[in-house]
Amino acid sequence: MSEARARLLSTASRLFYAEGLHSVGIDRIIATAEVTRATLYRHFASKDDLLVAYLTQSDELLRARVADVRLAGKSTEEVIRAVATAIAEDIQRPGFRGCAFLNAAAEYPDPAHPVHRAVLQHRDWFLATVEDLFAETGKPDAGPAARHFVMLRDGAMAAGCLADPAVVCETLLRGVEGLLVYRSRDDLEEALQQQA
């Protein structure tokens, strides 16, 4: 990545996250990044291309964080907890404004728009990753557990900038812990029968 492209993407990412995708115009990005209009359009054919690059970069960073946790030699349940803890840490960072992907989806609701497609691509990956993790724990309900985890995350991301982030994060982590100890009714009945 050239220095100019990196500066443009870094500047745009910071502005898009802090102020919103529609509200930040190309002129503002050019002025803040201190580049020419020609430089911007040499690297990004349109604002939509820049928006997709912003979301793609965010997606790649999250994928790398999850990969790092998975490679740390922890048990699968510890990896799930670590992913939830990383989400909680993000929520408590200064300047937190919610989930970049949920914010983008709200601003670009058309499912055919490239920004919306980038959001869905990220969410599909995240759900599949969490489902794989729950499947590795041996739980019979990996799909529902993963969807529950993603809903907990989405709710925490929304509530994190509306309520006390510490309480939101505590609730998120408690919910994820509940998912880890939950067993289906059949498993619970079987365990109780074995104890009898």
UniProtKB/TrEMBL annotation:
Query: Keyword annotations for this protein?
Result: DNA-binding, Transcription, Transcription regulation
Q: Which residues bind DNA?
A: 25-44
Which InterPro entries does this UniProt record tie to the protein? Homeodomain-like_sf (IPR009057), HTH_TetR (IPR001647), Tet_transcr_reg_TetR-rel_C_sf (IPR036271)
Q: Does the keyword Membrane apply?
A: no
Keyword Transcription regulation (UniProt): yes
A Pfam cross-reference name: TetR_N
Task: Specify the domain of life of the species encoding this protein.
Answer: Bacteria
**Domain spans labelled HTH tetR-type:** 2-62
What molecular function does GO assign, one term?
A: DNA binding
Full protein name: TetR/AcrR family transcriptional regulator
- This protein's species is Nocardioides oleivorans
